[in-house]
Design goal:
Number of strands: 8
CATH topology: TIM Barrel
Strand order of the largest sheet: 1-2-3-4-5-6-7-8
Helix content: 25-40%
Mean pLDDT: 87
Radius of gyration: 18 Å
Low-confidence stretches: 36-40
CATH class: Alpha Beta
Strand content: 5-15%
Number of helices: 11
Order of helices and strands: HEHHEHEHEHEHHEHEHEH
Largest sheet: 8 strands, mixed
CATH architecture: Alpha-Beta Barrel
Length: about 290
C-alpha cells in the first residue's frame, strides 16, 4: 500500500528557515547525532526551525534489527566519554529549556549504556540547571540496576516506546519483547513513583483497533502517564511496508480512548513522533497548562 501516493492528510509544507541550518551546523560542529536525522524524522525541519532537536547518544549504529527503523546497524564503537559534555554544550548554546535524549540500543554494553545516559543528564544539569531532560531509553534488557542508574540522574521524564502491538513484534521488533518493555515502565514507577513515564507506538503496520485498545490498557496498568501515537512511514523499500494509512478521525478516536483510560497527556496524529512537542505533553502531565 505504501507504493500509492500518500493521502492528503500526510502532505505538508516544507519549513525552511535559517535556524534549521544553525541547528544542523551546531550538531555537525560538535560531532553529535540526532534521531531527527538518523531516523529520517518527518518533523525534522519543524523542530530545527524552533532550535530544538532530539539528541541521540552512544553512536549511530544500533545492535538490533527492527524492520521499521532507519537507524543504521553494524559494528559499534565504545561510548565517547566526551559526548555527554558536548550534548550539554549544544543544549546550552541552543538555550533549550527542555531537551530529549535518546540512543541507539547497545546490547553489547554491560549496562546497555545506562551510565552514559546518566552522565549526559548530569552534564546538562551542571551546565544548564534549569533545563528539563526527557530520556527515551532502550529496554536495557530489563536490567533493574540500569534503570536505577538513569533514574538516579533525575530526568524529568522517562520514555520507553512499545512501538507496536504484541502480535507484530516478531515482524517489527524481533529482538525486543513486549512484556519486557511493559515491565521496564512498571519498574520505573516502582523505583520513583513521582517521575513522569511515557511510551509511544506506531499504527499502520497491520494492527487492529481492538489490539490498540489492549495496548493502551496495558500501558495504563503499568502506570504510564503519557502516550504518543503516530503513523508509520516506511523509510525505504528495505523496511517493513505500510499496510494502512490511518485516517485522522481514527487518530482522534484513539486519543479520546486514551484520555478516557486516564492518561495525563496524549498526542495522536499521523505526524506525531515520540519526542514531538515533548515539552507540551510534559506540561500537561504536570498541570502546567
Amino acid at each position: 500500500m505504501d507504493r500509492k501516493p500518500k493521502p492528503p492528510w500526510l502532505k505538508r509544507r516544507l519549513i525552511t528557515k535559517s535556524s534549521t541550518k544553525d541547528v544542523s551546523r551546531l550538531i555537525d560542529d560538535l560531532g553529535l547525532h540526532t534521531v531527527c536525522q538518523e531516523a529520517r524524522c518527518p518533523n525534522q525541519a519543524e523542530c530545527f526551525s524552533k532550535s530544538t532537536a532530539t539528541f541521540m547518544i552512544l553512536g549511530d549504529r544500533c545492535s538490533r534489527d527492527c524492520t521499521f527503523c532507519a537507524v543504521a546497524h553494524g559494528v559499534q564503537r565504545p561510548p565517547n566519554p566526551d559526548e555527554p559534555r558536548w550534548v550539554a554544550e549544544a543544549v546550552y548554546r541552543l538555550g533549550l529549556g527542555y531537551v530529549v535524549i535518546t540512543s541507539v540500543t547497545r546490547d553489547d554494553l554491560a549496562d546497555g549504556g545506562a551510565a552514559h545516559f546518566a552522565a549526559t543528564i548530569e552534564a546538562i544539569h551542571l551546565l544548564k540547571p534549569d533545563t528539563l531532560v526527557e530520556v527515551l531509553v532502550p529496554d536495557f534488557q530489563g536490567s533493574r540496576s540500569s534503570i536505577a542508574l538513569v533514574l538516579d540522574a533525575q530526568p524529568s521524564v522517562l520514555n520507553h516506546n512499545v512501538e507496536t502491538v504484541p502480535r507484530l513484534y516478531a515482524a517489527v521488533r524481533p529482538q525486543a519483547h513486549y512484556d519486557r518493555s511493559l515491565r521496564l515502565l512498571a519498574k520505573v514507577k516502582q523505583q520513583n513513583p513521582e517521575i513522569v513515564t511515557k511510551s509511544g507506538f506506531m499504527v499502520g503496520l497491520g494492527e487492529t483497533a481492538a489490539e490498540v485498545t489492549v495496548l493502551l490498557r496495558d500501558l495504563k496498568k503499568v502506570g504510564c502517564d503519557l502516550v504518543t501515537i503516530g503513523q508509520y512511514l516506511r523509510p525505504s523499500k528495505a523496511h517493513h511496508p505500510v499496510l494502512e494509512y490511518i485516517h485522522p478521525d481514527l487518530f482522534r478516536a484513539y486519543a479520546r480512548e486514551a484520555e478516557t483510560l486516564g492518561f495525563l497527556g496524549v498526542a495522536s496524529d499521523p505526524y506525531v513522533r515520540s519526542s514531538y512537542r515533548a515539552e507540551e505533553l510534559y506540561r500537561q502531565a504536570r498541570g502546567m497548562g
